[in-house]
Amino acid sequence: MAALLFLKSVLIGLSIAAPVGPIGLLCIQRTLGHGARIGFISGLGAAAADACYGALGAFGIGAITRAFVALATPLAIVGALFLAWMGLKMLRATPPERAARASDPVHALPAFVSVFLLTLSNPLTILSFVAIFATLSGGEALAGVDGLVMVLGVFCGSALWWLALSLGVSTIRHRLGVWAMQWIDRTAGVFLLGFAAWQLVRVIV
């Protein structure tokens, strides 16, 4: 029974992580610029945030859930501003800057934390987790092993996607020249600005 619950939770983690969005673009861009390790660690930040939301859904922690939902607007605005900053940074990068950045070491912790916080900046995602986990648990909060199995499954499913994505993207990394990387940076920057604008409009409207 626990094995089946774990597999279902893994599929949930995969389905949540797989759609291409701002987090996916950041992980792709970081993989191209700094290698599969940094890309995967960035993805782990998203997986950890998914696990946090999964825990709230699995254990039915109502007070914390309501607090996150109440903070939806300010967190969404902060997340949108961060996306816009990242997008502008990518748009303004020149080929020499891009080449230098690719050779500079990038610390794993900032890569992890930035994506973790960005993923948490959309607390309405918790509503999806609450609905999904309520279905799996029969509408009741879980306790003990079952809850931990579900949270671990979500994390593993999400992490599996980010591992596959970073390894896949890294296979073409060294085939791209500086100008191709600049084009990719600028395209990603435009998309990030678009995501930021959409998030702001959604909050305001």
TrEMBL record:
Main location, first listed in the record: membrane
Keywords: Cell membrane, Membrane, Transmembrane, Transmembrane helix
Subcellular location as annotated: Cell membrane
Membrane disposition: Multi-pass membrane protein
A Pfam family of this chain: LysE
Stretches that traverse the bilayer: 6-28, 40-61, 67-88, 109-136, 148-171, 183-201
GO MF term list: amino acid transmembrane transporter activity
Gene Ontology cellular component list: plasma membrane
InterPro entries recorded: LeuE-type
UniProt superkingdom: Bacteria
This protein's name: LysE family translocator
Species annotation: Metapseudomonas lalkuanensis
